[in-house]
Amino acid sequence: MSVVALGESLGLLVASRIGRLELVPTMDLGFGGAESNVAIGLARLGVPTTWMGRLGDDALGRLIERQLRAEGVGVATTLDPAAPTALMLKERPAAGASSVVYYRAGSAGSRLAPEHLDLAAIGEARILHVTGITAALGEAPRAALDAAIDAAHAAGALVSFDVNHRSRLWSHAVAAPEYRAIAARADVVFAGEDEAELLTGEREPEAQARALVALGAAQAVVKLGADGALGLVDGELVRQAAFPVHAVDTVGAGDAFVAGYLAELLEGAPLAERLRTAAACGAVACTAPGDWEAAPDRAAIARLLGG
Ligand code: ADP
């Protein structure tokens, strides 16, 4: 196994309206979650990947497990008989901003604890990928995240950390020191501009990357949306422009980007190449709706890069 992605995966009910009780013309059932999005992104790039987390022993949990496996992702989860799978209701309106409602507290994913980890799978991985969402879900998931990092360190695996701050889950004041502590134990840190500012207090991406490295991670990547990204490794600073695409849904771009970066890291590619593939993955992921559905395979990246 090359990568273990630890964290949440939750059901997604996407309707053309949520809120008032009324007839809605469309309703789709799917799933998503930052870490399982990254796992699918990696699998599509040909990287053997396992998603590790907790699902409820219910129809939604079994659906997610089946679909992850159908995407070529290994699943290291125990189905929790006592807690349901987390669910997110998402509105996809014809125009305007969408609303999102979560059921998370008390979900199986929120009860992830150290004893649920498959330490053998982490021991075999070359990279463990974690996000701040897992830390924000509560004390037990936070402890699981630390135990997973311990196992990765013991096995000599790299630790990849995408901050993925969710202000609804965690206030800035509580989250910032926790993220800094995780970053200090990671080898690669990914952060959006706002997240990097939250961790470092810096406002400018280059200063943010330097401050992230000063926290202890050898590699820092600041994701800048349609402005591209910036990476810093061993004092080498590389800027990567975004690839121009017709973006219809940018949700999941960051996860596809991370998958592209980690896939190239495993290949031993230099920083510029890691960022280029990552940006290509992020760009392609924007071209169709969905959280992971548009994550590219190698052929789709080649098409984008080829012109
Ligand atoms: P996140 O989804 O974590 O907030 P970003 O929005 O920064 O992350 O997106 C990650 C990467 O995806 C960016 O660094 C960029 O390379 C690519 N990307 C994001 N939005 C666009 C866009 N509109 N057009 C092209 N590429 C994009």
Automatic annotation (TrEMBL):
InterPro entries: Carboh/pur_kinase_PfkB_CS (IPR002173), PfkB_Carbo_kinase (IPR050306), PfkB_dom (IPR011611), Ribo/fructo_kinase (IPR002139), Ribokinase-like (IPR029056). It comes from the Bacteria. Keywords: Kinase, Transferase. It holds the Pfam family PfkB. The keyword ATP-binding does not apply. The keyword Transferase applies. Residues 20-296 form the Carbohydrate kinase PfkB domain. Belongs to the carbohydrate kinase PfkB family. This is Ribokinase. It comes from Agrococcus terreus.
